[in-house]
């Protein structure tokens, strides 16, 4: 049933192979040290293993864990990473462990399962609680993947809020329809999540034709595909554009492409270009003045930022907001420009193009999608006016998890 025991190395290998998941386990679990330091538990026929040190670190007793702060309060001055269990017992719904220093811990089975190291439960936790897996798309499928949501529903129903936030996180884009025709309507949507990301363009910003502008977006000329504010280290996660007035004339269409789709395409078909796009640092920049405040923002990062698991963290792209200082080596310049042009061309090729109707809020992942706008004619009786606001992914994922708890979708 359960034992505190020394796992034989071949037993562990067998366990991992049986689970057909050897690749997914961290390498160190096969090392000599960790295999001596686990407790295995059989929960209703499901065999799970937990390292001693992890169990001790996550003791849920009042001395080790503060209930209302929901935080670990173990005194690490006395924490022993080599702690061993001296007694392990189990009843119908929990595991009890007495440690070699006499401390006693108790763990509920559901609590343990959710935190299990087995790849199946790790995936469940990742998908249900951490972040829903993203679905990448080509522009030709835009009308299927871009889900429509109703303004009133989002501000009044947790189910609708959950659906909107989840769709936005999965596809990186969504639309809110039937938004009241007012400059403050977007505030109610922001409130459902929490608060905006404030930037030097303000809490909210107005996109319309402005002469002597502080930003090329505030013109009526074409706005080439880009991500907003790549020159911020803490770049806004989600962009929301409320189309208060759409141009009656030609032009003004939006262009949207999934940077993750393009990145994967380049990785598969042009690996050398992918290396340049992920390795060569670019200096993103915005220098100027807005509402009397001067700014001089610089941030260095490649066009495609990837993490240690080869997952894309963030896409940065802007022609106007890329500075002229090239931080990389001179040998990289020519091949890098070719890779940049490939990324630009493919995003345009894979993009969806549509004219966003008045009353819609176009919501998109600003660190995944590239967006742009076709030029339009601006005149006294033909204007175009958008109200924009940013929200960070931290706030969106947080609200999404809170709503899931409220709706009993997760514990
Ligand atoms: C922007 C922008 C899109 C539009 O202001 O950065 O991308 O449709 N605007 O005007
Ligand atoms: Zn404890
Ligand atoms: Zn933009």
UniProtKB/TrEMBL annotation:
<dbReference type="InterPro" id="IPR003819">
    <property type="entry name" value="TauD/TfdA-like"/>
</dbReference>
<keyword id="KW-0479">Metal-binding</keyword>
<keyword id="KW-0124">Carnitine biosynthesis</keyword>
<dbReference type="InterPro" id="IPR038492">
    <property type="entry name" value="GBBH-like_N_sf"/>
</dbReference>
<dbReference type="GO" id="GO:0016706">
    <property type="term" value="F:2-oxoglutarate-dependent dioxygenase activity"/>
</dbReference>
<dbReference type="GO" id="GO:0005739">
    <property type="term" value="C:mitochondrion"/>
</dbReference>
<comment type="similarity">
    <text>Belongs to the gamma-BBH/TMLD family.</text>
</comment>
<dbReference type="InterPro" id="IPR050411">
    <property type="entry name" value="AlphaKG_dependent_hydroxylases"/>
</dbReference>
<dbReference type="Pfam" id="PF06155">
    <property type="entry name" value="GBBH-like_N"/>
</dbReference>
<feature type="domain" description="TauD/TfdA-like">
    <location>
        <begin position="149"/>
        <end position="390"/>
    </location>
</feature>
<feature type="domain" description="Gamma-butyrobetaine hydroxylase-like N-terminal">
    <location>
        <begin position="45"/>
        <end position="112"/>
    </location>
</feature>
<comment type="pathway">
    <text>Amine and polyamine biosynthesis; carnitine biosynthesis.</text>
</comment>
<protein>
    <recommendedName>
        <fullName>Gamma-butyrobetaine dioxygenase</fullName>
    </recommendedName>
</protein>
<dbReference type="InterPro" id="IPR042098">
    <property type="entry name" value="TauD-like_sf"/>
</dbReference>
<dbReference type="GO" id="GO:0046872">
    <property type="term" value="F:metal ion binding"/>
</dbReference>
<keyword id="KW-0223">Dioxygenase</keyword>
<dbReference type="GO" id="GO:0045329">
    <property type="term" value="P:carnitine biosynthetic process"/>
</dbReference>
<dbReference type="Pfam" id="PF02668">
    <property type="entry name" value="TauD"/>
</dbReference>
<dbReference type="InterPro" id="IPR010376">
    <property type="entry name" value="GBBH-like_N"/>
</dbReference>
<keyword id="KW-0408">Iron</keyword>
<keyword id="KW-0560">Oxidoreductase</keyword>
